[in-house]
## 1
Amino acid sequence: MVAVSTVTPLEQDVLLNMNKIEIGHGSGGKLTRDLIENIFLKYLKSDELKPLEDAASINLDHNHKAAVTTDSYVIRPLFFPGGNIGKLSVCGTVNDLVVSGAVPKYLTVGFIIEEGFLMKDLEEIVRSISETAESAGVKIVTGDTKVVEKNKGDGIYINTTGIGEIVKPMDLKNVSAGDKVIITGTIGDHGTAVAIAREEFNIDAAVESDCAALNGMLEPLFDIAGVKWMRDPTRGGVATVLVELSEATGLGVLISEEDMPVREDVRFIQDMLGYDPLYLANEGKAIIITSAESSDRVLEMLKGHPLGKDAALIGNITADFKGLRLKTIIGGERVLDMLEEDTLPRIC
Amino acid sequence: MNRSKDIIRHIKSLVPKDKQVRIMNVCGSHEHTIAFSGMRSLMPENLEIIPGPGCPVCVCPESDIINAIELSKRDDVILVTYGDMLRVPSVKGSIRADGKNYKMISSPFEAIEIAKDNPDKRIVFFSIGFETTTAPTAAIIEMGVPENLSILSSHRLTPTIMEILVKDTELGIDGFIAPGHVSAIVGANAWNVFSEKYRIPTVVAGFEAENLLLGIAEILKQLKEGKPATGNVYAGVVKAEGNVQAQKIMDKFFEVADVNWRGIGNIPGSGLELRVEYSKKDTKKVFGLAEVKESKIPGCICGNIILGKAYPNACKLFKKVCTPRTPKGPCMVSMEGSCNIWFKAG
Ligand code: SF4
C-alpha cells in the first residue's frame, strides 16, 4: 500500500497521469531530455538511436556508413535578420550531419502549411531553401506538403531529413582529459536576433542570426587526427552541449568567460534581458573537441575560413571534477547546469 | 582580469584576521553580478557578502497582488504591470494564471499608450519598485495621464529598510554596498545617515564585478581605518545630490506611508502612497480596495532571505520544489530575487 499522505503534489500529478507537454519540452534542455528518456526511449530502442547523437550512423555495406538526421523547424517569427525558416531548415540539418563527421549529400523537405499562408512568403522560403542547399552542395531529393485548416498551425512548419556519407566517425569515447574545447565563432547571435525580431521585447538593434551551413568550414578538419568530436550548439547553447558532453564522458569541462567570443551588442542586449549567451541558440557555430597537440592547427584552419574568423579556444577537458564549470572574468568559478526550461522558446 | 585580481589581493590584505566581516548588498543587480561572477568563491573566508532587500517584486504585499488579480477580472478594467509581477504567486494564484484582462509593460509610458488606445476601459497601472521605478511613474503623472488611468502604488523606500537592518544587532552588518540605480535618483548623500549615525561604511557601486570589488575594498579600508563614510565608486553615474528633478516630482505626488512588506510585516515610513490631492489617480481609493490579510506560504523563508538572515539554500524547498518554473515564493520569480539568482548561478 502506498501511504497517500506522503505523496507530493508533483508525484500525484505523475500518478494521476496528469502531466502535460509544456513548451519547455521542446527546449533541448532538461525537460526535453526527460521526455526522450521517459517516453521515446521507453518504446524506441534501436541501437542506432541509442547514442542520441545529432545524426544516426547506419551501415550501408561493409565499407560505407551513412549519417541520417531529421529536424523540424517551428521558429517564430518565420523571417528574422540574417535568415528565415527555409534557410534555417537547410543549415540546421546540414550542420547536424557535418558535426557527425559526415559529408552532407541529400535532403528531404516536408512542409506543414496553414491555410491562408501567403504564397509570396512560401516562395521566398523555398527560394532560400534552394539557394542555401546549392551553396552547401546538398541536393533536395524529395518532399511533402500538407495543409492544415486556418488557426490549426502557425503559418508554416518545415521538417528536413538529411543523409550524408560518414568519412570521419566521431566518438565521444575518444574524448579524454587534456583535450581542448574550441568554438568556431561568437555565441548567442541567433538567439539574440530572433529575440529582437519578436516584437514583444521592444528592442532596436541590428543583430543578425549566424544561420549558416558549416560543411565548407568543417569538412577540411576531418583530415586532422586530433579532432575527436563536434557538435553544433543550437537550442540550449554552448552550456547545454558541454553539460551533455560531461555527463556522457564522466569528465569535467572548464571553460573561460574571458576567452568566450561574444559580440558586444549581443552581450549588451542579453544583459538587459537577463539571458546568458552561453545558453542561447546558435545556428552557424560548432564546438570542436580536439587533442591539445592539434588545437593550434584546428584554430588556424578555422580562422582561415570566413565563418571561423572569431574561432577561439574556450576551455579544457579535465578529470579533476565532473560537470561544467565556468571560470569568470574575475577568476571566480561557478557551476553551469542544464537549463530547466528555455528562456526563449521556439527559436529554431 | 589583472585589475580584478589586484583588487582581490587588496581585499585580502584589508580583511581583519580575527573577526567576521559582514557586508550587505541591497540590490538584485548587484547580487546577480556577485553570484554570476563567482565572487564569493574568491573572498577570504571571514568576509561574508549578504544579499539583502534588493528585490521589490519579492516584498510587494500579497494584498496588492490579490487586489490586482481581482481587478483584472472586471470587464471594465485592464491591469498593466511589469513582467515579473504577472508571475508572482499568491494564495489566489498569479495575475498571469488567474487574472483576466492584463497587459505586460516595460515602462510606465506604455501604460499611457494603452489608456489612450482603450478609452472605454479603466486602466490600472500596478506600479511597484524602489525609487528607480517610482521616479518614472511620478514623471508620467507630471506629464498628465489620461482620465481612465489610475495607479496602484506599491512603492518601497530603500533607505528606510536599510535603517531597520542596520539596527538589528543580531544581523551585525559591518558595511553596505549601496545600490547604483537607486543612488542615481536619491543621491549618494542619502546614505550619509549610515556612516554618521551608525558608523557603518556605505559605498555606492556600479554593476560590473570589478566595480563591485572596488566598492568592497573601499568598505574594508574604511573599517580598517575606523573612518566610516559614504563612498562612491560609481561617481560617473551617481552624483552626491542625485537627480533633484526626479526627487521633486516624486515628492509632489507621493507621500511616505506605513506599509507592509511581504513576509516581513508593517514597516513604518517605508512606502509611498499617492498624496490625497491625487486621490482620483489612486486605484486603492478609486476602487475602494480593502487590505487582504497575508497568508503564509508553507516552507518559504523569503522574508528572512530579504532581511539577510538566511541564504536561499537554507530553504528546504529551494531547487527541490521551488524553481523558476514552479516558483513557490516571490523570491524565485523575479530576476532580482535572491532565490532566482542563486538557482540560475548554480
Ligand atoms: S526557494 Fe522558494 S520557497 Fe524557498 S525561500 Fe526562496 S522563494 Fe521561498
## 2
Amino acid sequence: MNTEKTPLVSVRNLKKHFPITGGFLQNQVGAVKAVDGVSFDIYPGETLGLVGETGCGKTTVGRTMMRLYEPTAGEVELNGVSLTELGEKDLRKIRSKMQMIFQDPYASLNPRMTVGSIVAAPLDVHTKLSKKEKHDRIQELLDIVGLNPDFVNRYPHEFSGGQRQRIGIARALALEPELIVCDEPISSLDVSIQAQVVNLLEKLQKELGLTYLFIAHDLSMVRHISDRMAVMYLGKIMELAGRDEIYLKSMHPYTQALMSAVPIPDPDLAAKSKRIILDGDIPNPKNPPMGCNFNTRCPIAKERCFIEDPEYREIEKNHWVACHFAEETRS
Amino acid sequence: MTPLLEIKNLKTRFFTSEGVVKAVNNVSYSMESGEILGVVGESGCGKSVHALSIMQLVQDPPGKITNGEVWLDGKDLLTFSEKEMKKIRGSDVAMIFQDPMTSLNPVFTVGFQIVEALRLHNDMTKAEARERAGELLALVGIPGAEQRLDDYPHQFSGGMRQRAMIAMGLSCEPKLLIADEPTTALDVTIQAQIVDLVKKLQDDLGMAIMWITHDLGVIAEMADRINVMYAGAIIESGNVRNIYKKTRHPYTMGLLGSLPRLDEDPGAELLSVPGLPPDLLALPKGCAFAARCGYRTEKCLEEKPPLEEIDGREHAVACWHWEEIAGSK
Ligand SMILES: Nc1ncnc2c1ncn2[C@@H]1O[C@H](COP(=O)(O)OP(=O)(O)OP(=O)(O)O)[C@@H](O)[C@H]1O
Ligand SMILES: Nc1ncnc2c1ncn2[C@@H]1O[C@H](COP(=O)(O)OP(=O)(O)OP(=O)(O)O)[C@@H](O)[C@H]1O
Ligand code: SF4
Ligand SMILES: [Mg+2]
Ligand SMILES: [Mg+2]
C-alpha cells in the first residue's frame, strides 16, 4: 500500500465521552471514555481493519467518524473537508459519500418495508431519479450483491442472515459512496456464509474502487480483508501498521497477546504455537487505570506504565505504537 | 473395554404446527473415558439438541427422542425415569449450557447455586459445601474466590460467569462434561484463558469432555476427536489429524476453506460454500449437502450416503464420492 497518497479520511485525536448521570437531579457524575484520542488515516481504495475486544470503542469510532455521534473533541476530514465543522445541510450532502453496514442484519432492516423500498430509501432522499431510473438502479444494485432482482417485493424475514446482509450492502451502495464503514458485518453469520459475504465485499471493492473501514473482533478475518490494521484497547489505538507488520512484527504487548490467542484451525500448528495468556478482564471504561490503560493486564508493565500514559508514536515508517517499551518488545 | 458413552441411531424430532423438525438424524458414535470430543457444525445443525437428548432435557412437547439408545458407563439412559436421570445429571454427566446467563439464576448468589448443586448429589453440610464451593471457584481461577461466593451473577464478567459455570459442572466430578459453546460469547483473550483452564482441569481430573462449537479453530488444539454435523447428522468423524489433514467430506473442506488463517498468506479468495443449509422440516431425499456440493452426481440426489468407516474409528465419512475427491486433490 502506497501511503504517500493523500488520505480519503483523516482522523485526529478523536474523542467521544458518554456522560454518566446520577443522583436526584440527574447531574453528570462521570463519563464513559468510549473513544479517548484516536488518530488514523484511511487511503483511497484501501481497507483499514479495526480490531479489539468487546467494548473497546470500535463502533463508537465508526459512528463518531461519520458524525452520527457528536465528537467530544478532535477532527475528522473527508477529502480535506472538515466534517466536525459542517452544518446539518452540508453534512447531509457529504454523508451520502459515507455509508455504513451494520452487525445485525435482522435489526438494521425495517421489517415492514420491501427489499425494493429499503434499497430505494437513500435514492429517494438524495436523488431525483425518475421512476424508471430508480427501478433500473434497484435491479442493478440487487444484481451486484448477488440477489435475485425478482425479489424486490419480498420482505426481510423471507431472507437468511447472509442474504439480509446483502440487502444492507445494496442499500449502502445505492448512492455510490466512497467510504463504507463495515461494523462487524459478518459476526452474526455462520462460517460458510461469512466467507460468501467477505468475498462479495472484496469483489465490490475491486470493481467500484471502494474504501473500507472494516470493524470486527475476528482477527484472522480482519487480517484477511485489510491492507492495514489498527488494534484498539479501552478507547485507544495501541498499534497500527500494515497487516503483515502487525502479524509478523507487532511491538505492542497487547497486540502480541491478542495474536497469540487466535485459535489456529490446524492441530500441528496449534500444538507448536505459544500462547500468551493475559490475566484478568478489561477494566471498566468509566474508570480507566492511570498511566497506560493496558497496565492492569500487561505482562511487561513497569513502574513508568502506572504513571505516564505512553505516547502514540511512529516507531518505524507507517508503524504506530503506544507503548513505552515498543523499541524493546519488537518481535 | 466398553466405551464411556455410546450412542446408537439416535433420532430426535420436534412436532411443531409447521411440521416435523428432524433435528437429530440417526446419530451413532462412542466416546472413551478421558477423551475430548469436539462437536462442530453451523447454527441449527443439531449440536445442542443431540447433547440435550443425552441428558434427556429436550423440551417435550414439542420434542421427542423417537429412536435410538444412549449408553453411559454401562447404563441404558433412555430407559431411565426422570427421577433416575436427576441423579445421573450432575454426578455422571454434567452440562454447561450455551447461555451462561440463562443457566445461572440471577436472583441467587453464585455461591448459593454451587452449594445447592453440591448438596443435591453429595451428603454434605452447608458449611462443608460452602468450603468446597470456594475451592471450586479458586480451581477455575476466580481471584478472591472465597469473597466472590456472595456475588450475584451480574456482578461477574462474561468470562467469570463462564468459569463459575465450569465450577458448577465440575462440582460432582462427572465422568463426562458436556460444554455447549462455552466460549462463543467471549473475547479471544478470555477464550484463551478458558481453553487453557479446561485443558489443565482435564489433565488433573481426567474426565471426558464434549466440547460443542461452530469454531473449527478452538477445538483443533484441544480435541482428540471431532464429529462434524450437518443437518442433524454426523457427516465426518475421526481423530483430529484426519479431520484437519485428511479431510474427506466436501462440507468439512468447505468449512475449513471458509476460515481465513493468521498463518496463511492473506488476500487469497476464501473458499466459500454456496447456498444455505437445508430446512429440517423438509430434508431432501438424498445427501443433505447435495444442493451446495460441487461434487454432486445423480446418485447423491437419490440416495443418502451412510457414515462409512474408512479407517475404523479413526475416520468415517458420509459421502458417495470421498474416494474420487481424495484422489483428485
Ligand atoms: N450511547 C452510549 N451511551 C453510553 N455509553 C456507551 C454508548 N455507546 C457505547 N457506550 C460505551 O462505550 C464503550 C465502547 O462501546 P462500543 O460500542 O464502541 O464498543 P465496541 O468496541 O464496538 O464493542 P463490541 O465489540 O461489543 O461491538 C462501551 O463501554 C460502551 O458501553
Ligand atoms: N423447542 C424447539 N422446537 C422446535 N424446534 C426446535 C426446538 N429446539 C430446537 N429446534 C430445532 O432443532 C434444530 C437443531 O437445533 P440445535 O439447537 O441443536 O442447533 P445447534 O447446532 O445447537 O445450533 P447453534 O449453533 O445455533 O446453537 C434447529 O433447526 C432448531 O430450530
Ligand atoms: S454425497 Fe454427493 S452431494 Fe453429498 S457430499 Fe458427497 S459428493 Fe457431495
Ligand atoms: Mg461494536
Ligand atoms: Mg446450540
## 3
Amino acid sequence: MPGFIESLLAAPAVAPALLIGSLVAVTSGVVGVFVVLRGQSFAGHALGDIGTTGAAAAYLGGLPALYGFVGVGVLGGLAIEGLGERARERDVATGIVLSLMLGVGALLLYFMTQRTDATGGPVAILFGSIFTVDPSIALPVALFSLLALLLLGFLYRPLVFASVNPQAAQAKGVPLQGVGLLFMLALAIAVEESALVAGALLSTALLIGPAAAAVRWTRQIGAAAALSALLGLLAVSVGIALAYQSYFWPPGHRGWPVSFFIVLLVLTEYLLARLLPARAARRPLPRRKEAA
Amino acid sequence: MRNLDPLRVHEDSVLDLQGVAVHLGGRAVLQGIDLSLRPGEFVGVIGPNGAGKTTLLKIILGLLRPDEGTVLVAGRDVRAARSLVGYVPQSFAPDPDLPLRARDLVALGLDGARWGFSLGGQRRRAKVEEALGWVDALRYADQPVGRLSGGELQRLLVAQALISDPRIVLLDEPLANLDLRSQGDVVALVGRVAHERGVTVVLVTHDMNPLLSVMDRILYLARGQAALGTVDEVVRGDVLTQLYGHHVDVVRVHGRILVVGGADAESLTCNTCDS
Ligand SMILES: Nc1ncnc2c1ncn2[C@@H]1O[C@H](COP(=O)(O)OP(=O)(O)OP(=O)(O)O)[C@@H](O)[C@H]1O
Ligand SMILES: [Mg+2]
C-alpha cells in the first residue's frame, strides 16, 4: 500500500490532478449544501451542461477550457436567476436557458470534431480531463474557489435565512433577489470547476452527492458544509487513485475515466447516508410536558 | 372601515394606518382602512379567504406599498421601522433533513439579515437561550427543526419573531394545522409573552374562538373593508351584516361564537366552526 501511494504521487499527472481535484471538491461540497437547501439541483445540473458551450468555444479559440466553462456558466447562472424569481419560474427559466445554450454548444462541439487536432476535445469536455489538464490551471482554479468561498462567507447568514424561511427573511430586510443572484455566481463557479474534473455531464454528482449525504448526517449548516467538503475530497482523491490504478486494467490499458470512479464513490456515500442516518437526532424527543 | 371607539386612537400608537387602499390585479383588495393599535394590545384579525389579511400584513411589513393612505410604525415610515416589526409568515414546513437546530432558527431572527458569519459570542447565545425560554422550547433547542411537530415549530417562529425585541409582532395564521389544544397553547403563549414584553400582537386566524380569552380587540376583514373593536362591539349580527353586505347571524353556544352566513356564504359558517 505505501508503495502504491508513493508511485501514485510520483506519477507526473497525479499530483496536479489531486491538487485541482481537492480545490474543486471542497468548493463543490460547500456550495452543494446550499444547493440542496434551496432545491436548486436542476439549476446546478443545467449549469454543467451550459458550461460545455463555453468550454467548446474556449477550445476553438485556443483558451483553457476552464475560462469557457466559468465564463458561460456565470452568464447562464445570472440569466436563470434573473429570468425566474420564484422556484417554479426558475425551473422554467433554467430549462429555457439550458436548451438555448445546449443548441449552441452542440454546434460548437460539432465544429470541434471537424478539426483533426481535436480528437480528445469533446470527450474531455463532457467527461472531464483532470489528468490531461495543464497544471498551471491550478492557480486560476484556486482563485475561483477562493472567490466562491468568500462569496458564501459574505452571504452566509442572509443566505441561510433566505433559503430556510424566505418570507421572514424578506420581512427582516434580506434582499432575496440580490442574495439569489450572488449565490448563483458561487454556484456557477463551483459547477464549472467540477466540470473540469468530473466532466460537464457529471459535475452535478460532485455538487449534490456529498452535500445530500452530509445534510443527512449533521444538524448544523456549518457542520454539513464541512462534512460535505470532506466527503467530496474523499471521493475525488480515491477516484483519482483508482483511475491511476486503472491504467493497469483491461481493455486498453489506457485508464478508465476518473469521472466514473468519482460518481461511483459519491453515489456510495449518498446511499450510505440514506441507509444509515447516523444523525443522533433519531433519538426520541423527551415526552411532551403537560401544559402548565 | 368602522372604528367603533374613536377615543381609542392615541398618539402613542404602535401602528397607524390611515385611508389605506391596495389594488392588486386590477381589483381593490383593501380600501379605506384606518386603524391605530396601542402598545401591548392583542388584536385578532379574522376574515374569509381572500379578504386581504395577508395583504394587510405585507403592508405593515413594508413589503407592499399601499396605493393610497399612510402606514406608520411607532410614528415612523415602515421602511425605517423594519427592526420594530416581528413576523411569522403563513406557512413554514422545513425539509425533514434540514441541518438546522431549533436554536439556529431562532437566532436567524436576531441577526439573520446581517452579512457574514456570526461571531457567536456569549451575549448572542444568552439571548437565543432566553428567547427559547420565553416559548418553553429549551427542551428541544438542539433538535433539527425538520423533525419537530407543528406546535413546536410554531413556538420557535414566535421566538424568532420576538427575539429582536420588536414593538409589534405579526402572525399569519399560526394556528392553522394545529390541534385545538396546541392552538390554545400557542395563543396563551403569544398572549403571555407579548403582555410581559409590552409587544403589540396582530394575529391572523380563521377561528376567533381560541383567541377569545386573550384578544383585546378584533379586526374583522371582509370585502376589503375592516371593522375594529372589541368582540362584543364587532362580532354582532348588524355589524357583520353590513361588512359582508348580506345577512349574517352571530350565534353564541357554550361560550363559543359562530358566525353564520346565508346559504350563499357557506364559507362563513365554516370559518368559525371547528374543522
Ligand atoms: N400579487 C397579486 N396579484 C393579484 N391579486 C393578488 C395578489 N396577491 C393577492 N391577491 C389577491 O388579493 C386578495 C387578498 O389576498 P390575501 O392573500 O391578502 O388574502 P387572505 O385574507 O390572506 O386569504 P387567506 O385566508 O386565504 O390567506 C385575494 O383575492 C388574492 O387573490
Ligand atoms: Mg393569507
